[in-house]
Amino acid sequence: FMDLRELLKDKLSEEELKFVPRSFDIIGSKGKAVAIVKIRREIESKDKLIAEAIMKINKNVKSVLKKLSGRIGKYRLYNLELIAGDENTEVIHKEYGYIIKVDPRKAYFSPRESTERQRIASQAKPNEIIMLMFAGTGVYGIAICKKQPNVGKVIAIEINPDAFYYMQENIRINKLSNKIIPILGDVEEKCKDYFGICDRVIMPFATEGWKHLETAIKCLKQNGILHFYFISSEERLFQDAIEILIKEVEKLGRKVEVLSKRIVGRFGVRLYKVCIDAKII
Questions:
Q1: H helix intervals, 60-128
Q2: DSSP secondary structure letter of residue 106
Q3: Nearest one of 17, 60, 40 to 3, comparing CA atoms
Q4: Tens of pLDDT along 149-165?
Q5: Can you list the alpha helix ranges (DSSP code H) found in the chain?
Q6: How far is CA 197 from CA 64, 139, 192, 221, 280, in A?
Q7: What is the mean pLDDT of the chain?
Q8: 76 near 134, Cβ under 8 Å?
Q9: Does the pLDDT value for residue 136 go beyond 80?
Q10: What is the C-alpha separation between 159 and 52, in angstroms, rounded?
């Protein structure tokens, strides 16, 4: 951050410098990466200057995308505008020994959650059948298969055709076509084929995943494990997520045992992305 501010101090006023972003995401590799930055409206007119400074400090960044919205629409994408650099924003991202090919303008991918993906992957057991809802580029499935090569199958469902294309590519690149079953479609429809046969269900879509809890629970065998993500306020960090989960589980005549609860990351002002790991009995 100091570097970015230092670089811009002759071009921005002292007041404007206060609004220079403290952090931004970089997706990609040493050869080619894309930066995704949120720019406050107070300095929106200086977005090109900020983008150029980001590229100057990070030589591998070939494109800078400005975040115009939260995740919206049927395909759960950020509205991203190219403000500097190469029009082609497809990159290869590496983490924990596997490769993810993605264009962040076409498919959602968060480099910030690599540690969380490893946490989930380390829980997977040999021969498990795992349902991955809202699979995106398939990254959770790939992380699991690389960490636990003896996993049974990962059923990965995604509604966005572009994300589905990248998931197929990533399965191929990482040589996991014998482990991951990619499915294009709506989880409400496609999960029906897997009711009662899954040992574990992962629901990484935190903002609206709760609407699909009933379907997720129906996929689980008795004593199956659910990883449920939710956006919570600071005041009710885990209460709302747990209350919603209990309500949906009891509606289906089942019981829930909360195994762990954790903050995954900040989501906004006094808002957090949390994960509840639970056994559904």
A1: 114-121
A2: T
A3: 17
A4: 999 999 999 999 999 99
A5: 2-8, 14-17, 47-57, 114-121, 139-147, 161-173, 187-190, 213-219, 239-251
A6: 43, 22, 10, 6, 13
A7: 96
A8: yes
A9: yes
A10: 35
Per-residue pLDDT band at 2 (split at 50, 70, 90): low
For residue 216, give both structure tokens: 């997720």
Contacts with 92 (C-beta within 8 Å, 6 or more apart), sequence order: 28, 29, 31, 32, 99, 100, 101
Residue carrying structure tokens 């289906």: 252
Please report the pLDDT score of residue 111 as a whole number.
Answer: 95
Q: What is the mean predicted confidence (pLDDT) over 206-210?
A: 95
Written in H, E and C, the secondary structure of 167-221 is: HHHHHHHCCCCCCEEEEECCHHHHHHHHCCCEEEEEECCCCCHHHHHHHHHHHEE
Tens digits of per-residue pLDDT, 50-76? 999 999 999 999 999 999 988 888 888
Contacts of 221 (CB under 8 A, 6+ apart): 196, 197, 198, 199
Q: For residue 42, report the phi and psi dihedrals to the nearest 5 degrees.
A: -60, -25
- Give the C-alpha separation, 120 to 147, whole Å: 10
- The SS3 assignment for 127 reads coil
Question: What is the C-alpha to C-alpha distance for residues 186 and 265, in angstroms, rounded to an integer?
Answer: 27
pLDDT of residue 40: 93
Q: DSSP letter at 70?
A: S
Q: Is 275 helix (H, G, I), strand (E, B) or coil?
A: strand
Is residue 142 within 8 A of residue 169, CB to CB? The reply is no
How far is Cα 266 from Cα 232, in angstroms, rounded to an integer? 10
Q: What residue type is 197 in one-letter code? A: I
What proportion of the chain, given as a percentage, has pLDDT over 90? 92
> Which H or E run includes 271?
strand 271-280
Structure tokens at 188: 């409400």
